[in-house]
Structure formats: structure tokens, C-alpha cells
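testing teh design pipeline on a random one, pls ignore if ur not involved
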């Protein structure tokens, strides 16, 4: 029965690929199909938001209300987000300020000690939520354009603009968290950085990573990927020679990154002092172990053992559900070790690919693909090892994920399916959230499936990068530069379960 199901999936996949090839023969028609897919899926998400009143995080509205009352972030009220993230949260409030009944204002629900998610004024909160969603849709449209540009520039066979664009549209749609969070902005800037590298715009690449860092913080971990990109494109006898040859570009990039991050931070310091900046950074060290994290998931699975019972609680500091367990005291050191280990795996795999790609026939094209896969792997390394793992974190990876092209067909298929399953199971977690708060075993299993798929996506990228030299070299000997769009073996071969 499983074999029959896999065969049917393979048949559907082949028919879908034939349909794509037919569309790609007519670029104008392909463009219209992509725009239609984006419009329909985003209209469904927007309608669902309005019907369910599932607006953005209530804390975003709280910040907007404080701004409407003349209070400034960092100086007059504490915030947990970097400066550019705060700008994204406050921008949707600006067109509402002159509109009286629709303008945000400080809400009494936030005045006391919170024991559950607050419910702000529905009219004002709804107006802000719609304004926020429209801003995110504009970022989403820009990201789709960047995805198609990147695919056209470095994609090659099997990753045409249409296919990459459809992957992006599907991943975002199935994630379901687009209109409620701002994480996509960080992913958009990370993708813009890789595309800037492809166009030899070093200043824009490093500047984009700096801006992404000012949105979410952890994109700073992409800096070693940028260094590796330039070393990958040289063919010297040693690493030291590579550094010497690319010294000017590396210095220019580091100065650009430092100037943007330091400049924005200095503005906040001049406005509010050093302490609010320190609080924004140190805040994350004190947060609890959130329910969706891998660590909380493990505690739930072990909660049936004697003396390891768990229960859930509400953290009023960041409006999140956390897990309490006798093992919770070990979470912080284990998370630090897990982050170090995951980053070490990602960087080591990227470095191995870079070492061998320096001798490739087309080092620039190879280095761009390594940079894409490496950037996605590093972001995933942080996410799976962090003490919080909400579904919207994947929005920071999806823009890169849609354009990643792995040399190994089976790993490419596993990469796409693991991401898709992560988003689907993530929606399942949202659907069973009340049961998960009660620690129902079947709800815990859905969360486990989501987190397992998330980890598989990371491991798949690390394996692909580690094995990249062998596949990429054989590919360059076999035929040189990729040009066509027909019968790409990476996407036309069936998943392993169908073979």
C-alpha cells in the first residue's frame, strides 16, 4: 500500500513537471501563472485573518499605542526587538494616527500583570492589524521578485524563476504565519545579500546582512558565509593567499556592516542610553523554554517518566507559553552547547564545500550556490537550537530555501519535502494548540513531527554541503555551465520512498 501511494505521488510529480515545462516555454504565461498563484494564496490568507480576527501579535499593537501617546521606544518603554524591527512595528500605525477612532492608543489590558494573551480594543487593534498585514504583503511581493531574480541569476536547470517562485508561494502559504509576524523581512534581506553577491555588489551584500541583523539579530551569523564566498572564488595555493587577494573586498564589507549596525545602535544610545540597548540583548537570556522548542518537546516526551513531570505556564514577559520541568535548569547550558555544535556543523560543511569549489571550472556560480545553501543552514542551525521555535521563525529561511539548489537529487527532494512537512505540521500545531497546552499525547506527537521535519531540513543541508565537492566537480566535468530548463534530474527523480 505504501508502495502504491509512493508511485501515485511520483506520477503526480512527473505530470506537474511536464506542466511546468509547458508553462516555461511561454515566459509571459509563466509570469501570469505565478502572479495569479501569489494573488490567490495571499487573498486566502488575508480573508482568513479577517474572518478569524487573527491579527498580528498584540504586543505590536501595544507598541503602536505607546507611540500614539507620544512615547518613544527604548526611552519611554522597554522593547525586546532591535531598532529596524521596531521601525517595522511602528510604521503601520502612522497612517492611522489622524483617523481618530481607528488610531492605536495605550490599552488597559497591558497595564497590569498579564496571565494570558491580552485582547485589545477590537476596532483599533483590527485597524492596526490590517495596516500591518498590508505592509507585510508589500514585503512579500518584493521577496517574490527577489526569488525570481535570484533563480534567473544562479538557479540553472530545474530552478527556473517559475519553479522557485511557486516553491516560495507554497511554502509561505502553508506556513500560515505571514500576516502576523515580521520575520519575513529578515529573510528578504538575507536573500538580497546573496543576490548582491551574485551581482558583485559587496557593499549592498554586507549592508543587507547588517539590516537583517537589525531586524532579528541572528542573521549576524551569516558573516562567515560572506567571508567564505570571496575565498571560494579564488584559486590560490593557500588560504592565506586567498585572504590577501580578497583583502580589499573583505575590509570594505566589514566596514559597511559595522557602520550600519553601530550607527543604528548609536542612535538608540543617544536617544535612550546604554541600558535599554543592553536590556534588548540580555532579555533573550532570561526567557523561558517555550513550548514549541525542541527542548520543551523533549521534556514533554520524557514527562511520563517518574520525577520528570511537566506542566505549562504563561510567561508575561514575552507573552509566550513555556514548559516547566525538573530538567528546565539544564536547558540554558544545553541550548548553548547545541547552538555551538549546530553552527560548527554548518560552518564546517560550508568550509569543506568552499575548499573544493575553489578549484571548480566556474567558481563564481558554485560559490553563489554554496552561499545560498550555507546561509539557509546557518539560520536553521540557530533556530533549532534556540529556546523558542514558533512556526513564524521559518519565514526567515523560506526566501533562501526556495532558491537553494542541491547537487544531489535525493537530498534536493528531501530538502523540499522536509520544509513542506514542517509548515504543514506547524499548522497542525496551531490547530491543536489548546490540546498541546493540556499536554495531550496526540498533540505532543504533532509537535514532535514538526520539530523532526525542521531538524531533517537542517541535516539535509549539512549533508549536501559536506558532499558538495564530489557532485559539483563531476557536474562541471560533464558539461560546463547550466543553460537549459528541461528534464532536470534534481526535480524529476522521485523521492527515495517512491523508488
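output:
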Amino acid at each position: 500500500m505504501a508502495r502504491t501511494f509512493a508511485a501515485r505521488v511520483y506520477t503526480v510529480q512527473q505530470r506537474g513537471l511536464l506542466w511546468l515545462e509547458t508553462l516555461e516555454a511561454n515566459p509571459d504565461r509563466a509570469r501570469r501563472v505565478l502572479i495569479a498563484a501569489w494573488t490567490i494564496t495571499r487573498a486566502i490568507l488575508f480573508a482568513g485573518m479577517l474572518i478569524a480576527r487573527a491579527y498580528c501579535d498584540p504586543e505590536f499593537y501595544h507598541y503602536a499605542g505607546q507611540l500614539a501617546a507620544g512615547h518613544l521606544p527604548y526611552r519611554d518603554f522597554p522593547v525586546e526587538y532591535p531598532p529596524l524591527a521596531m521601525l517595522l512595528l511602528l510604521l503601520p500605525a502612522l497612517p492611522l494616527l489622524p483617523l481618530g477612532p481607528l488610531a492605536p492608543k495605550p490599552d488597559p489590558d497591558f497595564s497590569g500583570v498579564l496571565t494570558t494573551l491580552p485582547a485589545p480594543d477590537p476596532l483599533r487593534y483590527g485597524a492596526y492589524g490590517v495596516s500591518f498585514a498590508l505592509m507585510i504583503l508589500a514585503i512579500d511581493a518584493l521577496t517574490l521578485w527577489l526569488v525570481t531574480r535570484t533563480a534567473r541569476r544562479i538557479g540553472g536547470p530545474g530552478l527556473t524563476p517559475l519553479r522557485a517562485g511557486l516553491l516560495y508561494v507554497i511554502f509561505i502559504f502553508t506556513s500560515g504565519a505571514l500576516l502576523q509576524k515580521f520575520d519575513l523581512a529578515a529573510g528578504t534581506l538575507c536573500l538580497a545579500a546573496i543576490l548582491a553577491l551574485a551581482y558583485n555588489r559587496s557593499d549592498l551584500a554586507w549592508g543587507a546582512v547588517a539590516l537583517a541583523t537589525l531586524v532579528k539579530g541572528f542573521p549576524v551569523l551569516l558573516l562567515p558565509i560572506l567571508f567564505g564566498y570571496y575565498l571560494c572564488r579564488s584559486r590560490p595555493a593557500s588560504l592565506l593567499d586567498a585572504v590577501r587577494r580578497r583583502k580589499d573586498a573583505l575590509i570594505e564589507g566589514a566596514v559597511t556592516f559595522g557602520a550600519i549596525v553601530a550607527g543604528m545602535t548609536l542612535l538608540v544610545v543617544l536617544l535612550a542610553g546604554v541600558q535599554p540597548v543592553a536590556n534588548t540583548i540580555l532579555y533573550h537570556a532570561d526567557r523561558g523554554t517555550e513550548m514549541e522548542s525542541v527542548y520543551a518537546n523533549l521534556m514533554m516526551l520524557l514527562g511520563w517518566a517518574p520525577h520528570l513531570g511537566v506542566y505549562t505556564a504563561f510567561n508575561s514577559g514575552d507573552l509566550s507559553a513555556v514548559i516547566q520541568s525538573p530538567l528546565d535548569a539544564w536547558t540554558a547550558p544545553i541550548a548553548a552547547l547545541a547552538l555551538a555544535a549546530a553552527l560548527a556543523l554548518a560552518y564546517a560543511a560550508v568550509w569543506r564545500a568552499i575548499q573544493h569549489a575553489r578549484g571548480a571550472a566556474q567558481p563564481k556560480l558554485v560559490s553563489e550556490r554554496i552561499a545560498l545553501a550555507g546561509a539557509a543552514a546557518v539560520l536553521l542551525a540557530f533556530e533549532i537550537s534556540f529556546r523558542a521555535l514558533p512556526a513564524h521563525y521559518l519565514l526567515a529561511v523560506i526566501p533562501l530555501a526556495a532558491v537553494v539548489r542541491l547537487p544531489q537529487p535525493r537530498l534536493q527532494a528531501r530538502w523540499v519535502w522536509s520544509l513542506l512537512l514542517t509548515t504543514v505540521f506547524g499548522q497542525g500545531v496551531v490547530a491543536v494548540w489548546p490540546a498541546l497546552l493540556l499536554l495531550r499525547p496526540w498533540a505532543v506527537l504533532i509537535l514532535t513531527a514538526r520539530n523532526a521535519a525542521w531538524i531533517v531540513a537542517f541535516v539535509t543541508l549539512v549533508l549536501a554541503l559536506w558532499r558538495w565537492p564530489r557532485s559539483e566537480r563531476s557536474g562541471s566535468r560533464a558539461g560546463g555551465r547550466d543553460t537549459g530548463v528541461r528534464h532536470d534530474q534534481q526535480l524529476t527523480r522521485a523521492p527515495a520512498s517512491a523508488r
